[in-house]
């Protein structure tokens, strides 16, 4: 792939990608995402070659690579747009090949490409991608003949089912982890902090932004006729830059933002990071050409220019080393199982949660729950994802007269509560209006009031220099499969049924339990009600008299106070709209006071809604101060124009001000 920095940027990118944590983890799992990422990167590479100077062989390779990517993940059919963009870029470059020789876009002698040749390339790439998909994914088709392209209905049904799960339309326990997650931000957070590591993640995305800025500036220079050289360099990044932006905009906005869906971007982002680091290295080399050639300063430059590259590589290597420590020790569930065999008396009742792994596992010739071969423990399975209602906790008698135990009945039986990961308590508690009693159960279990004490906390976190790096804040799948946190609680003498009932269900109003789907709960996580914490904040906010002094000047002469404030805000806002509304006779003077009130109120409300600063006197005055200072600065800058305007339009200004005072004082 032709990119500034050449082979150096490519080598740095390859090193950074190899050191990324998520590709290392998925390589251990041998998931399809690794193959998808490979063929996606290959498709983008071939598309860039086609855009630069590729011919029919390049087109054939592009069709094959897109088809292989589709066979891994059918949504990669969207790579087909790269073929269209590649030939469009070729046609555009040929059309604009009228610039001076120094600004010719392609350094090699470019093959002339006609419209019909370009259309033929797109069609050929499309046909080959379909045939490749037919060959590599035969389960998607009905017949056995290679040219039988009838789609298998079950394949369509499976794709629709998966799509419903990813989009949140199908509600299931695994989808509850996404409730309340901020679209794009959560995906970006997991990619930058955990998947790549902070140093590589930030560098890669900043480099992508930098490349976009260069592309925009180059297009502006070409549009204004000031030169083609900048665009010549920037266009090399067009297809990779576009694919990253398109794919993240698409996948970052879905409901289920699992980390592995973004693996297809890691290679390209690493490439941009390598390009930026090499550019930074070269930039420091250029500085040395015009600075004084003092020996000490030059040697310092020679060392400093390597700092960004060495720092990013070193920090990425450190994160990769820390993460791979989890593969140098036994799995945390194996450690937990051995701990249970060594510390829990045989015959004890241990709990497990539906949708999570039961512990202990049978290991070291010891059977966990098989009474026929001397099982050690009695398993009590709980059902936390059942909808919250009284029978979930107290049990019920079914239509056949068979009793079905509730969680409180299970707690009476259980000697040890085992949470083999954060899968359940990390997801179900995200819907407090759907699972109010379950949320209380975990709360009182963890703080010890339920009558169970924590006796084991078994982890296998990434570790650097002996310091563990907890990653429970990452997406669930990042930890629960290869290094889950296992918690074990032992029943104590403090446990009793009445206390457990009161703690778990005592304050729950069952008629106010909202059985919201995960998608709806994500949109309205508290069913449009204030939470207990929010209620406390409102109750402690103070009374009206406490916030507004009845004996103060504002309360004694409120009309004068408001008039002065409105005039100050209005004149400040007028300085802002003076240049923005040149078509109005008064340049927006009559609207300024209303706009000022609206702006200050909205900004103060926004600070409160984003939980940055509570809505109140402080936030209102802070926003007003920003408006006043900004208005004063603009008025100073445009003072001459304002004086001319007032001299020429004073009649309109006085009329608008008179109407305002008449309405205000009347």
TrEMBL record:
InterPro entries attached to this UniProt entry: RgtA/B/C-like
Record domain Glycosyltransferase RgtA/B/C/D-like: where: 6-89
The UniProt record lists the keyword Transmembrane: yes
The entry's keywords: Membrane, Transmembrane, Transmembrane helix
Domain of life assignment: Bacteria
Transmembrane intervals: 61-92, 113-136, 191-213, 234-255, 261-281, 302-323, 559-578, 590-607, 613-636
Keyword set includes Transcription: no
Family annotation (PANTHER family): TETRATRICOPEPTIDE REPEAT PROTEIN, TPR-DOMAIN CONTAINING PROTEIN
Protein name: Glycosyltransferase RgtA/B/C/D-like domain-containing protein
């Amino acid at each position: 792939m032709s990119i500034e920095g050449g082979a150096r940027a490519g080598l740095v990118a390859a090193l950074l990608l190899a050191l990324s944590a998520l590709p290392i983890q998925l390589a251990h799992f041998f998931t399809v995402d690794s193959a998808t990422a490979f063929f996606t990167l290959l498709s983008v590479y071939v598309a860039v070659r086609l855009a630069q100077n590729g011919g029919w062989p390049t087109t054939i390779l592009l069709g094959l690579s897109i088809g292989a990517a589709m066979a891994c993940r059918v949504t990669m059919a969207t790579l087909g747009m790269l073929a269209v963009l590649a030939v469009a870029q070729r046609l555009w470059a040929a059309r604009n090949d009228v610039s001076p020789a120094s600004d010719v876009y392609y350094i090699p002698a470019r093959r002339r490409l006609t419209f019909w040749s370009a259309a033929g390339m797109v069609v050929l790439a499309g046909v080959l991608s379909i045939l490749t998909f037919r060959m590599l994914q035969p389960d998607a088709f009905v017949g056995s003949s290679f040219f039988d392209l009838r789609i298998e209905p079950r394949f369509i049904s499976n794709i629709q089912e998966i799509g419903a799960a990813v989009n949140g339309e199908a509600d299931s326990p695994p989808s509850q982890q996404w409730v309340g997650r901020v679209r794009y931000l959560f995906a970006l957070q997991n990619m930058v902090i955990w998947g790549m590591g902070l140093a590589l993640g930030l560098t890669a995305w900043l480099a992508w932004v930098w490349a976009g800025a260069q592309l925009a500036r180059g297009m502006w220079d070409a549009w204004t006729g000031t030169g083609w050289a900048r665009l010549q360099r920037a266009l090399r990044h067009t297809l990779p830059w576009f694919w990253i932006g398109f794919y993240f905009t698409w996948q970052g906005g879905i409901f289920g933002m699992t980390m592995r869906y973004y693996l297809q971007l890691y290679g390209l982002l690493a490439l941009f990071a390598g390009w930026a680091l090499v550019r930074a290295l070269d930039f420091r080399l250029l500085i040395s050409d015009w600075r004084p050639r003092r020996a000490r300063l030059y040697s310092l430059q020679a060392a400093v220019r390597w700092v960004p590259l060495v720092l990013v590589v070193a920090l990425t290597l450190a994160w990769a080393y820390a993460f791979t420590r989890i593969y140098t020790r036994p799995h945390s569930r194996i450690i937990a199982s051995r701990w249970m065999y060594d510390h829990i008396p045989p015959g004890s009742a241990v709990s497990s949660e539906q949708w999570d792994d039961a512990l202990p596992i049978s290991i070291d010739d010891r059977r966990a729950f098989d009474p026929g071969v001397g099982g050690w423990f009695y398993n009590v399975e709980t059902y936390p994802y059942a909808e919250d209602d009284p029978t979930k906790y107290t049990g019920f008698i079914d239509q056949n007269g068979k009793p079905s135990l509730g969680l409180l009945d299970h707690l009476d039986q259980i000697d040890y509560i085992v949470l083999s990961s954060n899968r359940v308590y990390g997801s179900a508690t995200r819907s407090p209006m759907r699972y109010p009693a379950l949320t209380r159960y975990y709360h009182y279990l963890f703080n010890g009031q339920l009558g169970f004490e924590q006796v084991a906390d078994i982890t296998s976190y990434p570790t650097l220099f002996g310091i563990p790096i907890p990653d429970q804040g990452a997406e669930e799948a990042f930890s629960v499969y290869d290094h889950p946190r296992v918690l074990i609680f032992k029943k104590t003498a403090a446990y009793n049924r009445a206390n457990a009932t009161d703690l778990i269900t005592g304050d729950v109003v069952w008629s106010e339990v909202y059985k919201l789907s995960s998608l709806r709960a994500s949109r309205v996580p508290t069913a449009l009600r204030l939470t207990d914490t929010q209620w406390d904040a409102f109750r402690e906010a103070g009374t009206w008299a406490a916030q507004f002094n009845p004996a103060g000047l504002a309360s004694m002469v409120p009309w004068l106070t408001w008039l002065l404030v409105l005039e100050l805000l209005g004149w400040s806002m007028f300085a802002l709209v003076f240049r923005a509304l040149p078509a109005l006779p008064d340049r927006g003077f009559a609207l300024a006071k209303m706009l000022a009130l609206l702006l200050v109120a909205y900004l103060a409300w926004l600070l409160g809604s984003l939980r940055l600063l509570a809505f109140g006197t402080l936030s209102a005055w802070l926003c007003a101060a920003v408006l006043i200072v900004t208005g004063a600065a603009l008025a100073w800058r445009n003072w001459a124009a304002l004086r001319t305007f007032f001299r020429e339009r004073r009649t309109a200004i006085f009329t608008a001000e008179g109407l305002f005072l008449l309405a205000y004082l009347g």
